[in-house]
């Protein structure tokens, strides 16, 4: 959460003026300090409300999962933050473009599954 605020400040908030933000209901997204920050910057961001237990259709979640699995399979474990960063960057830069294409191509099926389940759970 604090990293998010630092990134926004670094990139000068005006770059994002008028943009919309969607956040799930993860505890870090509901932290008082973050919600207060968005409240203070309502002229720059529109924070969309999002229902709890809503289906997660973001392909990025699958990318994070793939990265986490690859990182967990590496031995020995990362001895420090610097090594962790280097390994994460190495994994990120070597992810297959085919994986991205498959994730994008799966979006119509994902949306159809959510509609069929009336917003309930799906295999995605």
From TrEMBL:
Pfam families: DDE_3. Residues 24-73 form the Tc1-like transposase DDE domain. It comes from the Eukaryota. This is Tc1-like transposase DDE domain-containing protein. GO terms for molecular function: nucleic acid binding. InterPro entries: RNaseH_sf (IPR036397), Tc1-like_DDE_dom (IPR038717). It comes from Araneus ventricosus.
């Amino acid at each position: 959460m604090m990293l998010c605020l630092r990134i926004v400040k670094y990139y000068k908030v005006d770059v994002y003026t008028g943009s919309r933000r969607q956040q799930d209901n993860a505890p870090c997204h509901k932290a008082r300090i973050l919600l207060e920050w968005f409240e203070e910057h309502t002229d720059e961001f529109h924070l969309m409300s999002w229902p709890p237990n809503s289906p997660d259709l973001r392909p990025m979640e699958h990318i994070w999962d793939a990265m986490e699995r690859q990182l967990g399979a590496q031995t020995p474990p990362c001895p420090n933050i610097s090594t962790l960063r280097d390994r994460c960057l190495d994994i990120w830069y070597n992810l297959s473009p085919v994986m991205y294409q498959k994730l994008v191509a799966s979006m119509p099926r994902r949306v159809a599954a959510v509609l069929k389940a009336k917003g309930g759970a799906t295999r995605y």
